[in-house]
Amino acid sequence: MEDVNGYIQMIDFSAYSLGTTDIDEAAVQALSENLMHSFTTSGFAYLKNTGITDEQVTSVFDVADKFYDLPVDVKQKYRRNETDFHERHGWVCMEGENLGKLNGLQRPPDLKELFNIKPPLSGGDSWPSEVPEFEETCMDFFNQAHDLAKRVLELIARGLGTEAADFLDMFKFIGKGRNSSHLRSIRYPPVPETVKENQVRCGEHTDFGCITLLFQDNAGLEVAKGDGEFVAAPPITDTVVINIADTLQRWSADKLVSTKHRVMLPYTPETRGTTRRCVTFFTHPDFDAVMKCLDGSDKYPPVRAEDYVASRLRKMYL
């Protein structure tokens, strides 16, 4: 392992990368230990040699740009349904989300727009027909990210001393139904000349699933250290940023750390004119999974995953 910024470590994932079939048990065990070190300290890591390439990521960025460049009245046809408190498929307009609320912050809404990809589609959801390749490109990447997330979850189960097969059984409906996991494309446009007081691209927050995979093309992500100082987590070619989220911190009885992060406005006039794009894969357990502390400590009372996610969404949107 090596430090990227004195805080977040770079981990070589080649021992268990996608497509790897000749598994070296000792190398996989060492990989699990490296992941656990990062996830019990900073809660973040960079993974290299995962089997997902920058070319695959760029293809999603490019097809998403074709959608975002459509007129607003066209994009409105694909607006995310927000009549219930589940993660839903569809577009969210500029300033349509305020993640700072999750941390109790009083900020204006975020300067970003996004599209959630959440199969299978529910009633009223659809793929943008104006961009015919959108569905195939995004679903191919959804499946790649899902496969990588499952490998990471298996290594986490190993590190926590829990049976991997039983743990992964709590995630069997990803992409199939009663599960909140989704792929999210986000575009942060160039900063307008006038912004609201204290407005940022993405407010300080922790994620509320189990793990998040983040693929990014421009700087902006900042991660909080234990002393409250934020450090930059810049894009690095052919890597994915991964972090622990609230559900897994609770499930692990606080052994794994869900760390605050944010995307601020660029700090220089030159960079304020740039666009930032990212694709994230938010991994959740199935709705009916009952999360009891994996170490048997009962530090937190059991809770259904669906109920926990719904409580977090209410906090953000109400």
From TrEMBL:
The GO terms describing molecular function are: metal ion binding; oxidoreductase activity
Protein's UniProt keywords contain Metal-binding: yes
Q: State the source organism's domain of life.
A: Eukaryota
Q: Which UniProt keywords apply?
A: Iron, Metal-binding, Oxidoreductase
**Domain (Fe2OG dioxygenase) ranges:** 179-285
**Keyword Oxidoreductase: yes or no?**
yes
Q: Which InterPro entries match?
A: DIOX_N (IPR026992), IPNS-like_FE2OG_OXY (IPR044861), IPNS-like_sf (IPR027443), Iron_ascorbate_oxido_reductase (IPR050231), Oxoglu/Fe-dep_dioxygenase_dom (IPR005123)
Stated family? Belongs to the iron/ascorbate-dependent oxidoreductase family.
Q: Per its record, how is this protein called by name?
A: 2-oxoglutarate-dependent dioxygenase ecdK-like isoform X2
What organism does the UniProt record list as the source?
A: Branchiostoma floridae (Florida lancelet)
